[in-house]
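Blackboard transcription, Thursday session:
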Amino acid sequence: MNRILCILLILLLILPLQGCKFKDIDLKLFVMAVGIDEAENNPNKLSVTLKIAIPQGDPKKAEEQVQIITEEGDTIAEIVRVMKSRIDKELDFGHCKAVLFGEKYARKNIREAADWTMRRRDIQLTIYTAVARPSAKEVLNVQPVTERIPANSILLALSKDGTESPFIVPPAFAYVLQRRIDERGADPILALVEKKSDQEFLINKSYLFDKSKAVTELEPEETRIYNLLSLKNLKTSLNVDYQGLKYAYNIEKSSAKYKIITPTNGTPYIEYKIKILAEVEESHSGDIFNEKLLRDLSAAAGNQLNERVERTLSKIHQAKCDPLGWGLRYQSRHWNNSEEWKEWEDLSERLEFHVKCDVDIKYTGMVR
Amino acid sequence: MVKNKYFYYLFLINALINVVNFVPRGLIAQRFSGAMMAIVISVPIGLLLMYLCIKMMSKFPGEGIPEIFNANYPKPVTKFMLFGHTLLWYIAGLITLIAFVDVTMRYITSDVSPLLIMVGFLVVVCLAIRVTAESILYALEVVIIINVPIIIYVLFKALLNPMFSWDAVMQVITYSLKAPSYGSISYATFIFTGYLNLAVFNRAFKKIRVRHIWMIGVVGFLVLIASVLIPIGYQGTIGVERHVYPWFSTADVLRTKNFIVERVLFFFYFTYLTLSLVSSIVHWHVALEMLKGVFLTEEKKKRKIDPEWWMILAFCIVAFFAMRTNQFFRDRAGLLFLDIRLAAEFFLIASVYLAYKRREAKKRE
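(Written on the board underneath:)
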């Protein structure tokens, strides 16, 4: 009896030995980035661009081989299937790290594209999303000379693993995008990737979304202020004018906190408190720093930053977007669940901003 | 005979496996209508049931429910009750297995047929449920000790991520004052249900005594809070509803730089693979013993094939049929199971109490 059972078991264990059901790596093409645009001639159709890497033995040899294909159709899924008959190997989205939405497409509605990235099981939730100008196709066609792995340069910039530019907003992963599209009281904000030339792109602006529609563009300066408000310890320098001369300071530590304050009679306001610890990086005066100058410079820097932050906040407010999640914060601090959203909608119309920047320039750098 | 500490492992395996068994999904569906309150209420209810069960089972040292029932109840009643419990424990293990086959399909090997995955799982589970209660408890200990540090690492990783939205968590907490439904309480008390496996595993304990039962309450509460609120922190208060397996989506969101694999999902998957297999083994072991209590009470004839094998074969066949159900049916069945389970728990403890009374009465005569 036992012998028969053992034999049966062994036979059963042989079943999975038929080998990998997967396609081997040399039969695969890895999609590195997906671009989604409105079709050129027909606004009701989509155009999808895939940037595909061809597997290679030695990553040190910087001869990247890349194929870019574009196809038009009604749904992204359908377009991908059509593409499959234009290539010789199996498409693999497992290593796809970025989805770019063309500007025109983003201004219309990105809901379907966001849904596709969330729903497809081989696409990770930690994929980067961004808006591309003039179109996703053209941005994906940019081939920077420094790029070693296909589409890697965009990823390095968006993820801040490579360059840490203060003008790039925190990564909008697919799940963050979807959560903000769904959430009451928060809106997505995506980095804007622009094509400068065939070998260079530029990421220093961002796009404010009203749920799934791109609405307003934030200029580089405003994007940096947004980063200052949403991130801890932003790596950047800022300029100050003091007595007609220019100075620049580098931020060592920064933190921003806010409170939504609703006085019983009077306009509701958001009070931002920003704390910055900094050092002087550049001085155009030529004088040797003393304690008083450093203190005055700090005060001037605080005042000037106040203004810049207030300008940015009121622009975001006028766009009727909520990239900083004020609405969610308001709801999360109030226990009257059924009325809180109405209250917020009513209150957010006449919101004011009070900003208190506390810039403390502590060091003068290596020289005095 | 094993030490009393093995009781904690029985509790822990159920508490950890809730992520696969639809508990977060049931609670998340009711996050705006009393799930938070249900979590708070479930702690005293779960602890009370646990205390009563331990108290009752300690009156029957070294005996399982089949022996207790057979000795103290008329035969038809015993058979009926044991069969009912068999079904519940069998379904508990089955839900874990099917959910895990589904997770494997979705996240790991989308090209392999689900039937083959199920065969693989069933081979492991069916061979393991026949061994003695002690051996299963030892295996349980090993698996838990290996996996708990990994789970704690994932939890820390999840809570320290800057993308985690504490505002979303706070927003759900402000819904704490809503009155909970029976359903949400029964989902939440699943965390504490591990003690019920004593029904058969009591055979391995000399005379069960559990110290520091409040600690189980604290751990259970934290586990519940974490398994509901962490997915909300990542997927948002509204968006979390979209996810079929909220916890696997949450693990997919996490990245680690200090490990060979970048995606936390993969080692989270393997952790939960071992935990769910062991959990199914525990549940099906109980189911098998109960079923043996129904059919193999008297004469122990030497048969050519051990009748256990027929029971295991039945388990497998039903499992393959259950594979044909669709996603929404499984959701509903999973949640329905959790609902029935709470009532059955009360029933089981009451019936053990009655058995105890009857035994005492018999002794006095």
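Lecturer's comment: Chain B has a mean pLDDT of 89.
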